[in-house]
Design a protein that fits this description.
Elements: H1 6-21, H2 26-31, E1 37-44, E2 48-49, H3 53-60, E3 68-72, E4 79-80, E5 84-92, H4 93-123, E6 130-132, H5 142-151, E7 165-167, H6 169-175, H7 178-185, E8 192-196, H8 199-207, E9 212-216, H9 220-233, E10 239-243, H10 251-255, E11 261-263, H11 266-269, E12 276-281
Parallel strand pairs: 6-11, 7-8, 8-9, 9-10, 10-11
Antiparallel strand pairs: 1-5, 1-12, 2-4, 3-5
Helix pairs in contact: 1-4, 3-4, 4-5, 8-9
Length: 290
Amino acid sequence: MDKLNIYEIKGIIAAALLEDVGSGDITTQLTISEDIEIQAELIAMEDGIIAGLELAAMTFTFDSPGNVGFCPLIKEGERVGCDQVFAKVQGSAQAILRTERVALNFLQWLSGIATLTARYVTAIKGYPVKIYDTRKTTPSLRMLEKYGVRVGGGYNHRFGLYDGILIKENHIRSAGGIKETVKRAKAANMEIEVETETLDEVREAVSTGVDIIMLDNMDTAVMKEAVDIIRKGEGKRILIEASGGINLENILDVAATGVDRISIGEITHSPRILDISMEVRTPDMDIVSC
């Protein structure tokens, strides 16, 4: 699993801290002396997959790198149980309390994405199918959300309009049909994917020699027929992607149709955060060591 590019995420962390801290953490400044140091534990309040440890570490230490230390007790992408301590942070109380909420927001959000993605991956275990994300992401935060998908065992679709050709319904309508749209797209000498909604569109897409055919919002019976048409009519191996209306209740039926990919918008646009807490430990408490 690849890591986050720290140079790409520094700006995201800075913007998040500016939003939350603004001109200063008034409560902490008034109640906590600058010389006080603390130790705190990060605790999973439910089962799930942890993602974003490096992001949390960078957030806690963002403006006080020499005064705060972050120590993960598990590896990125590892599953945790309820009440499990999975990391600790120690050092300047002011710095830790000032960055706590933003660090936890990143962890909860990415861990929620990874956990939901892992549920989909587990649901189709045994089938040669891969789970892909979509571009249905939070504006300006796509890179982080797609990272969470990878941590959960999923795969990334296009990162943007610049790194892949996906001919959708509105392109087809605007350009005058699948054949004409594909003909124009081939000028880029890139992999081409075409979205189809009917069996007639599937047949037309096969005839153009595209690389990937998306079966959009089809019920599983029609989807299976579409897969048969593609497999029988292709002059080369065409990848088949299912998309639209797919959830944990019906994904097994979709996987059984013979598609190669299943793209799920939910894993980035509607995941539930993973409940994570930070608790400061006092001298009379047992402290988990690194």
